[in-house]
Amino acid sequence: MSEQRPNPDELLARVQAEERQKARGKLKVFFGATAGVGKTYAMLEAGLEKRAERIDVVVGYVETHGRTETEALLGTPTLRGMVPILPRRQVEYHGTTLEEFDLDAALARHPQLILVDELAHTNAPGSRHPKRWLDVEELLAAGINVYTTVNVQHIESLNDVVAQITGVLVRETVPDRLIEQADEVELIDLPPDDLLQRLKEGKVYVPHQAERAAHNFFRKGNLIALRELALRRTADRVDAQMQGYRREHAIPQTWPTAERILVCVGPGPLGVRLVRAARRMAASVHAEWIVATVETPKSAHLPKADRDQIIQTLRLAEQLGAETLTLSGQNVSETVLDYARTRNVSKIVVGKPARPRWRELLFGSTVDELVRRSGEIDISVITGDRDPIQSQAPPLRIERTSDWSQYGKGVLVVVLCTVLAWLMFPHFALANLVMVYLLGVVIVAARCGRGPSIVATVLSVAAFDFFFVRPYLTFAVSDAEYLVTFTVMLAVGLVISTLTVRLRQQATVARSREQRVTALYAMSREFASTRGIKKVLCIAVQNISQTFDSQVVILLPNAVGRLQAWGNVTGWWGQEINERSLFAPDSHDQGVAQWVYDHGQLAGQGTDTLAGAKALYLPLIASRGTIGVIGVRPAQPQRFLWPEQLHLLETFASQTALALERVELATEAQRAHVHTETERMRSSLLGSVSHDLRTPLAVIKGTSSSLLKGRATLNPATQDEMLQTIYDEAERMNWLVGNLLDMTRIESGSVQVQKEWQPLEEVVGAALTRLESQLRNHPVTTNLPADLPLLTLDSVLIEQVLINLLENAATYTPAGSPIDLSASAARDAITVAIADRGPGIPSGDEDRIFEKFYRVASADSQRGVGLGLAICRGIVEAHGGRIRAENRPGGEAIFRFTLPLQRTPPLVAPESDAPTDQPMTANNPHH
C-alpha cells in the first residue's frame, strides 16, 4: 500500500496549482484543422446550451464571414431571450475604421461566460494587447470563463510544419502553452471531401475567394495533412490528460493506451543491437521509443572503453529518432521501473545477460529483477549472434580504485586504533576495543575509498586477535567463541565500509547534479534581471565558459542574414569577460556556423555533421525561429559525447536564445510604442493645425475678398473693422506657429535659459500688458506681496508661461468670470498661482493636460492645438521648478508653478532720479 501513496511534493504542487486555478476562469478551445470545419458554429451552439442552463453568456466577438448558418445561429432566441452581443470597439487606422473586441466592455460587464472567436487574431495598433489571446488571458485572470476557436496552423510549434506542407507561412500564431493549459479542448473534425463540398457551395468563403482558396491552401492533400496534425495534437493532449489523472490519483500501474517502448542499454556489447531492434519494433507499431542508461555510483569507475560504448549507443539511438536520457539511481531495475511507470511505458527491452549463472546468483541479475517486479509491463529480452570473443563471459576484474597513499593512510589509521585500544585495554572490555576499530574503518571508508576500507577491516580483525586475544602476540585462538567475534567484526566492518563508500559516491553524484542545476538557475536569474543585448551575451559567455570549461563564441545574423561573431574586437567586452573565454572562428568554422543557422541543427566537433570543425555549434532557436548560433570549444573534446552534457548545453543555448529574443521583443515593443506615439501626435497635430489654420485662413480669405469686391460700397468704418479682423486672425496664426516653434525648440534642447535677477512684479506686469485685449472680458485680480525677493529667471520665457496660463484661463472659462493671480514665497522657492472660475479639470486629467496636443474633451472651446501647457512645463522645468494643476473645492481650476530662490540676491543701489521710499505693490505692477 505504501507504494500507492502519492508523492508529497507532487501533492503539494497539485494543491498549489488548484489554488491558483480557483480565481481564474475556465478556457475551452474549439480546435479544428482549418477554416470552415464548424468551430464558430459549435462554439455558438455550446454557448446557447449554457444560456439555456441559466448561465450568464455574452458574445464578445464572433466573426461569421458571411456564413448564413452562423448568422442565423447568432440570432437564435433562447428561453432567456437573445444572447447579448457586446458592441465592437471602433479603431481608426490609416483612414480605415477597424472593428475590434472591446476588452474593457467585457471586463466591465463581467459575464460568467464569454464567446471570443479567432484566438490568434492580431489586434489593431493602439490596442491594449497586440494579440487577442492576450485579451483572453486577461479575461481568464479576471475570473471570466471563455469559449474560443483556433486552427491547427496557428499553433506556434507547428508553424514551420504547416508552412512546409502548404507553402503558406501563417503570421498569426498562438503559444502552445495556451492550448496545453486549456481546461478543455474540443476537436471539430470534418473530412476533406465534405469540407471541399462546403467550399464549393460558398459556405466557407464568398465565391471568388473560394475558387482561389481551392487552388491554393484548400487542396485535398493539404487538408488531409492538416487534419492529421489536428488529430495528433488532440491525441497528445488526451494522453497528457490521462497521465495527469494517473498522477493525481497516485495510480502506479501503467495504462497501455498507446505503445511506448523503453530500451535499457549499458556498457555491454548488445547496446547497438538493442537499439536497432527497438527501432524496428517501434516502427512496426508506430510507437514512441526511449533509450535510457542508468548511472549508478559504480558508473564513475567504468573503464573508458565501456563509457565510450555507452556514448556511441546513445548517439546511434538519437540518429534513429529515439529520445535518449541518463537516469540516476542506486538500483538499476528499480530506477528503470520507476521511470517506466512515470512515462506509462508498455514494453521494456533489455539484453540477455552474458554472465555465468553463479555470478548472477551471487551478485544478482538486473533482468531477473525486472521480470519479477515489472507487473503489467512487458519485458522483451533480446539476444543475437556475437563473435566468439563477445560470446564469452567477461572475466571478473578487480581494479584498484585508490592510489597506494590511500592504502597507507588506511594502515596508519589501524595502527592508531591499535595504540588507542592498547591504552584502553586495562580499563575497558574487549567489546569497547572492537568499537574503536570499527570507528577507524568508518574513517578510512569516508576518506580513502572502498579498497583501503576493506584492507583496514581485515587488518583490524588481525590486530585485535594479535594484541588483545589470548594467547597474546600470536594469531592462535584459545577460545573458539572468538571465531564468532572475528567473523561478526569482519562482516560489520565490511558492511560499514560499503555503506560509507556508497554514501560518499551518492554525495558526489548529488553534488555534480547540484552544480549543473545551480549553474542553469544562476544564468536564468541573471537573464531575468538584465536588459540590453551586450549584457545578455556577457552572461551567456561567462556561464557557458565556466560550466563547460570551454571557449565560447556567439554569432548573430546581420541585415542580409550572414552570421558575424559578436565581441571579437579587443576590449569590446570590457572588464566583464575574460577574453581567454572567447575564440574567433576561422573561415571553415564560419561556414559550419552558417550551415547550423540555415538548417537549425547542431553540427561540428563531436557530431556526424561537419565533424572536422574545431568547435561544436548549436542553433539559438527561439519562438520565432533561429536567431543565431553559439559555438563551444571545450578543453576536453570528449566532454559533449555524453548526452546529459550535450542536453545541458542545449538547455543553456535555449535559455540564451529566449533571453536574446526577449531583448529583441522589448526593442521592437519600444519602437512600436514610439511609432504609435508618433502617429498619434502626428494625427493630433494635423487635426489641430489643419483646423486652427483653416479657420483664420478662411476668415482672412473671406474678409479680404469682400474688401476687394466691395471696396467702393463699404464705408470706412466697416473697412477698418474688416482690416482689424484680418489682422487679428493673422496674429492668431502667428501665435499658433510660434507655439509649434517653441515646442520644437524645447524638445530639441536648443532653448537657452538666460537667467538674470528680476522682480516677479515686472514679469507679471509685462504679461498683463500683452494680454490686455484678450483679458478685457475677464477681470484679473493680482495678489503679489511687497516683500517678494528677487528671482534669477529668463524674463522672456517666464512671461511666456504667464501668458499661456492666463490665456488658457480666459479660453476655458465663461466670459465675465474673474481670474486670480497670486504669488507666495517659501524658504527655497516662490509659488505662482493662477485660478479661474471655469468648470475645472476632469478627474484624472490633471497630469495629462501638460502633454503635447492634449485638450480637455469636455471644454466648451477647442481653440488651440494643446501645446500651451506643454510649453509651460518645459520652460518651468528648464528653470528647475515644477508645475501642476488641480481643482479647488468649488470645482474651479488652479495652476501653480514654482521657481527656485537663490540664497543671496544682489544689492541694487537706488537710481538717483527715482524716489527710494516708494514700494512696489500689487496696485502698481508696471514699475
Average pLDDT, all residues: 79
Roughly what fraction of the amino acids lie in strands?
5-15%
Strand runs, count: 24
Report strand order across the widest sheet.
Answer: 2-5-6-1-7
| Main sheet characteristics | 5 strands, parallel
Q: Count the DSSP helices.
A: 27
Termini gap: 101 Å
Please state the overall shape, judged from the principal axes of the Cα atoms.
elongated
- Class from helix and strand fractions: alpha/beta
Which value, in Å, is the CA radius of gyration?
Answer: 42 Å
Low-confidence stretches: 384-394, 858-862, 911-927
Helix content: 40-55%
Please, could you describe this protein's structure?
Strand 16 and strand 17 form a beta hairpin. This protein has 927 residues and is α/β, with parallel strands linked by helices. Helix 18 (430-448) packs antiparallel against helix 19 (450-468), helix 19 runs antiparallel to helix 20 (481-528) and helix 20 packs parallel to helix 23 (643-710). The protein has 27 helices and 24 strands. The termini are far apart.
Short characterization:
The chain is an alpha/beta fold and 927 residues long. It contains 27 helices and 24 strands.
Keywords:
single chain, 927 residues, alpha/beta, five-stranded parallel beta sheet, 48% helix, elongated, disordered C terminus
